[in-house]
Amino acid sequence: xxxxxxxxxxxxxxxxxxxxxxxxxxxxxxxxxxxEPMGNAVAAEPQSAERARVQAAHNDAYKVRRVIKDAxxxxxxxxxxxxxxxxxxxxLCFTYRSKxxxxxxxxxxxxxxxxxxKLVYSETxxxxxxxxxxxxxxxxxxRFNV
Length: 146
What we know:
The chain is of the alpha+beta class and about 150 residues long.
């Protein structure tokens, strides 16, 4: 008498389960809509141009931060409090703390005009307060961590 039963082996069940899962994932993947329709490719260009502009300002902020730090009497005491970019004025505004020549910690500010490439420190220019008010008090600021 034939005593073999029609029982599937565990290996066959595992292979079948894997096949079903892969098939379901393939169906799910190919039925999804694309993230960005092809018709919006032109509309995405201004957004990417703005992103590139922000990235360039961030890169400049990083470089200028290094210049400001290196210009201090005690560069190791330099602590950056804030950096913001104001697109309308295209200015990077820095507030920082560092030790002066007498060892006292002072709060200072600096403005970097991206269009002119000039860096102006609060201690070196008469009328700095009005420059800060014009370039760094706008509501369109973007803050950076550098």
